[in-house]
Amino acid sequence: MNPIPSPSKPKKRMILAAVLTALATAQQAATAYGQSTSPDTAAIQAQITAERVAIGKALATHDAAVLRRYWSPTLIVNGPTNTIASRSQIIGAAIRGDINYTSLKGNTEFFTVTNGTAILMGHDDLVEANGPRAGKHLVRRTTDIYQRSGDDWPLVARQATFVGFDATPTAGPAAANFVLPEPSPETAAIHAQIEANSRACGHAIATNDFATLEKLWSPSLVVNSPGNRVLTREGVFTAMREDKLKYTSGKVFPEAFFVVNDLAVTMGHEEIVMANGPMAGKPLKRRYTDVWQKTGDEWVLIARQATYIGIDGGAVYGHPDPTLATQPSAANGSFIETVSSDTGKQ
């Protein structure tokens, strides 16, 4: 399999120019939404954008050293095959050439920094180079979580879920589930707290208990929603007031839980039946990732992705083209990037 050619010097200059243009456009967008753009946040996003370009080149050239530099040793991915994968598994797949694209563009819809954690949400447009879907234009919803480490911002967690079909692999080595090591007593205690918080959130959503959610959801919470658009906490509250988050049944199947410094991350899938809306009464499945951050003595939800498997939520909810989705109103200190950067990720 031939790797994707490395960008030429003119193309590199075009990428740099696009990034600089994006930063200026993002500041204009933030002003339009009545938000202030932090110079520090802008610099962090520029650095992460550069890292994403480097990762794309490293995947195309099978450069494991670069991947190890920018991916945390504890990186866990809720991946496009609807399975959980570790950094070593993804790097192994990259070296074997199992991760191979003829084109891949990462489109950022929302970026923010919350207490030393950077959250980037959007979608990937891609064409796979091999396999049963080779040559077809595909879209997947993405959430990337970064934490500062010295001068770098390594990726510590990611979800990438295809829109519109079930990409679960057939049985075999590629479908092997990632098994986390036995938790320490401290991690087990955090896990118990997160599980209690999650149950409380579920009950609060069912009963429209906004007071409880305001305690458990950070004011800067951002959600990469099943409708394939990014929502702030207030956007989710609006959906609740409009009875769009009513369920007749719901089961959560956690597949991975891990703690990275002040973050606790849960990944898995959910099986639900909506009470209202265009998919009411139909059994649905979605992949999810919840990111909790410790604030004082409490753990609050700062980011979530939930993406349907086998159904295009954007089409169902009236905005099938993710590039046309309405931009969210950002939390203070965040801004919106509007450029598509050539990147490569699982």
Could you give a quick summary of the protein structure above?
This protein is an alpha+beta fold and 346 residues long. Helices cover 31% and strands 35% of the residues. A hairpin with a 7-residue loop joins strand 5 (137-147) and strand 6.
What features would you describe in this structure?
The chain is an alpha+beta fold and 346 residues long. The chain folds into 2 domains: 9-167 and 334-342, Nuclear Transport Factor 2, Chain: A; 185-316, Nuclear Transport Factor 2, Chain: A, CATH 3.10.450.50. The chain has 8 helices and 13 strands. The chain has a 7-stranded mixed β-sheet with strand order 2-1-6-5-4-3-13. Strands 8-7-12-11-10-9 form a 6-stranded mixed β-sheet. Strand 9 (247-260) and strand 10 form a beta hairpin. Helix 2 runs antiparallel to helix 3 (64-70). It is globular.
Key words describing this protein structure:
346 residues, Nuclear Transport Factor 2, Chain: A, 2 domains, 8 helices, 13 strands, globular, disordered C terminus
